[in-house]
Amino acid sequence: MRQEFFSRTGILVFSVTILGILAFLFFGALIFVTLTAERSLSVVSGNALRDHISVASEHINRNVERYSLIANSLSTNQEIIHLVDNPLESNKAAGWVLIETKINFGFEEIFLFLDNGRVLFQNARDTSPYANEDFRPLVQKAVEFKTPSIFFFDSIIYQSPVLYVAVPVYGEGRSGVLVIGKVFNEKQLRNLAPAASQGILLFSKNNQKITANFYSSFFNQAITLKDYKEIFENAEQGEGFFKSFNQAEFSGIVGVVPVRFNSIPLGLMGFYVETKTQQQIQKNIAITASGALILLLVVFITAARFLHRLVVVPIGAIRDGFKRLAEGLFETSIPPQGLREVHEIGIGFNEMAVKLKEVYTDLEQKIKDRTKKLSETVGDLEGKNEEMERSKQAMLNLLEDEREAEEKIKQQSEDLRKAFADVQKFASVADQERNMYFLLLSSIGEGVLALDLERKITISNEIAERTLGFAKEELLGKKISEVLKFIHATKEPLEESFWSEAYAGAREVVLPLDTLVVGKANKTIPIVAVASAIKNVKTKQVNGIIITFRDVREERALDEARISFISVASHQLRTPLTSMRWFSEMLISGDAGAISEEQKHFVERIYEGTERMINLVNLLLQIARVEAGRVKIEPTMISFKNLLRGVSVALKGLLDAKSQKLEVKTIPDPFPDISMDQEVIWQVFQNILSNAIRYSPEKGTISVLVTQKGEFAEVMVKDSGIGIPKAQQDRVFEKFFRAENALKLVPEGSGLGLSLVKALVDGWGGKVWFESEESQGTTFYFTIPLSGMAPKKEGLSIAV
Asked: Does 794 fall in a domain?
């Protein structure tokens, strides 16, 4: 009993001691953190705040200077100047320059206006500022004073101040203004603030209006309107304004300095730092210490009671339970109680008692079963003795049967002799059929290889042996992978899926068109091949496959010569056509002298025809490069929405001419960016969308939907146009083919756009198809791997 008391007391004393040490450490850490925090809040002085705000102001000044240089550079861009001079023309190059600048430099807003206020280009989420009466005069100042206009302005959409830089753009006969906008959000301003600051101010120069005020509870309560007026007057007259505020609720320092660019005031920037008095610090320490002492006392009392109830009592119950088990009382169980670990020990004790009872019961049952089996074994031995007597009698019967068997053997020998004669007759017929089979193999004009289920070569004909450079004995019995290699033109091995599909036997499998076979002495041969399954006629079970192939070196050489001829011919045509277009432009513009209206009309027709010929030559060059595998692929991460926005800007002239609308949707939204070559994917979208616009009625709608299908992104382009006749749908992707209804509606056209689309989509590992009914519209689909396009450094750009 005394030993039990000391055991329980030891556990209690040890546990309370540990809790006391932890409470003491907590108390000391709490006082240390309080002193450190109070001291850190009072470190920032007026001079340090002045220096930090000045550095932050200089940071904004440098950004303003950088944005101003970018805007001035854009104002001298020839494409943008050309757009200002010719606002009625569609100029996708200027739009692309502006979009590229916005993306590269992270601008949120970009506008281009004429001097009369007409919008030439806009790419912005927030278009409301231009409708504001305070905003427009600030933009027009850039044209009136022929100098950049720089100012901060509120944004309803961003809920943050936006820095706008407006610069004049001068053409030959017109002028305009280019505006770029950069959002200064809360995160950017907080990065400029001191670590201990409690608020941020950013004032606009316009009407002394607060543009941004983040974390400003102090400003709203501690600074009056009179204080704001004093802040503006002092900060704009000198290098800054700094003032301390001491009130009952809190005290702090406010510092404000002007933000200028080239001595031009843009606004004011300021921060607030809260400080505390020594009396407040001592009061906080006293409160913290009292709370910690009370907490320490409560912890000691509570811990002692809970440890006794949750640890000592449950452990005593477990000890008594073990004593009862030792006495053979397997029905013993204890109620689980106490802390989680002690509670789990109680559960484990009860489970152990149940298991012990089960083991004891099972042992008794096994002893009974063994006794029963021994008695059964004795009975079996007696039965076997009787069986041996019966076997003896059976042996005597066998001797009698042997004599009868000798007579039967003589009769069977005679039957075998007759059967052998029949076999010889059938073997002669089989030899004739085998000779006919080998004669057929040797007569086939293509190479033939038969493989068993282990992919070992069982049959080869002379064409196969001559093409591959092997003798028959070098092929037969060998696994095909030991003597031959099937690779792509890129030197990558043929996919295992080809063999799996061929042995599945569902259909004939055609090897890819770029397949090469490596024969004897590493001789590489381009082939066209088909694999078919060999099936049992009755069971339909696949016993192997047969591969027929043909050497296509001559066809490939002719194809390369054709592509080379098209490329050379197209290059030779471009030079005179470009000269014709240039001279036509000179005649139309009057640079080569005055011509009559009738002559000008004829020259304009020449110019239009030349332009169509140049486009046709460019398409021929692009197709030749794709078919020859000489297109360079330089993938970058591209957003579908940004890409389609750029394409719609480029096609805006065609859409506006027919009052059509382009709708774009992605699922999910936003759709993950994919690594693609900008020029290649641009060509595919531009060709499909331009066809949809050309053959759709006025005021029609063209829909673009991007969805995710497994490991591919699927793009759908749907129009409400004239559709494609059912009888001509098989020829849609042929070069120079145009459907009859398309020729009647739009006589001009090359018939090369969709051929180029298919070549590009096949090249990046995707698929392209369509669904159409005449007079009901057409829906084109194509896929792009989510893994992106594989880069290819060799070759030329698809753009010509």
From this structure: no
Domain range enclosing 130: 48-275
CA distance linking residue 339 with residue 309, whole number of Å: 9
Q: What is the pLDDT of residue 354?
A: 72
- Which of these, 6, 154, 151, 4, lies nearest to 67 by C-alpha position? 151
Give residue-wise pLDDT tens across range 25-68: 666 666 665 555 444 444 445 566 667 667 777 777 788 888 88
- For residues 192 and 247, membership in a common domain is answered with yes
User: How far, in Å, CA of 702 to CA of 689, rounded?
Assistant: 8
Looking at the structure, do residues 681 and 700 belong to the same domain, yes or no? yes
Cβ neighbour number for residue 462 with a 10 Å cutoff:
14
Residues 387 and 287 grouped into a single domain: no
753 is written with which tokens?
């756009």
In order of 274, 644, 650, 752, the CA distances from 688 in angstroms are: 63, 12, 14, 11
Q: What whole-number distance in Å separates Cα of residue 466 and Cα of residue 196?
A: 86
Residues 438 and 452 in one domain: no
Q: Among residues 626, 653, 678, which one ends one of the domains?
A: 626
Residues 454 and 600 in one domain: no
Q: CA-based diameter of the chain, in Å?
A: 140
Residue 359 placed within a domain:
no
Domain boundary among 247, 275, 303: 275
> Same domain for 369 and 248?
no
Question: Which of 717, 699, 697, 690 minimizes the C-alpha distance to 660?
Answer: 699
Chain position carrying tokens 């906008």: 181
The C-alpha atoms of residue 450 and residue 460 are separated, in whole angstroms, by 7
Instruction: Return the CATH number at 83.
Output: 3.30.450.20
CATH number of the CATH domain containing 653: 3.30.565.10
What is the spatial distance between Cα 93 and Cα 682, in angstroms, rounded to a whole number?
Answer: 14
**pTM higher than 0.70:** no
Question: pLDDT tens, 525-577?
Answer: 888 888 888 888 788 888 899 898 888 887 777 667 666 666 666 666 767 87
Cα separation, 345 vs 585, whole angstroms: 97
Contacts of 741 (CB under 8 A, 6+ apart): 722, 723, 724, 725, 774
Residue 798 lies inside a defined structural domain of this protein: no
Distant-in-sequence contacts of 477-483, Cβ < 8 A, 24+ apart:
479/454, 479/455, 480/449, 480/451, 480/455, 480/456, 481/455, 483/457
The answer to whether residues 530 and 394 belong to one domain is no
Q: How far apart are CA 581 and CA 571, in angstroms?
A: 16
Burial of 679 (0-12, 13-18, 19+ CB in 10 A): middle
User: Structural domain tally of the chain?
Assistant: 6
Torsion region of 191: left, alpha or beta (phi above 0 gives left; psi -120 to 50 gives alpha)? alpha
Residue 292 CA to residue 643 CA, distance in Å, equals 62
Query: Helix 92-105 vs helix 46-75: angle between axes, to the nearest 10 degrees?
Result: 160
CB distance 535 to 542 below 8 Å: yes
89 lies in some domain: yes
SS3 (DSSP) at 156: coil
User: Do residue 106 and residue 245 come from a single domain?
Assistant: yes
- Report the distance separating Cα 490 and Cα 511, nearest Å: 15
Please name the residues in contact with 350: beta carbons below 8 A apart, sequence gap of 6 or more: 333, 334, 336
Adjacent-strand bridge partners of 529: 549
Residue 160 near residue 173, CB atoms below 8 Å: no
Displacement of CA 339 from its chain's centroid (Å) = 50
Torsion of Cα atoms, 573 then 574 then 578 then 584, to 10°: 40
What gap in Å lies between CA 175 and CA 168, rounded to an integer? 7
Cα dihedral sign, 210-215-217-223: negative
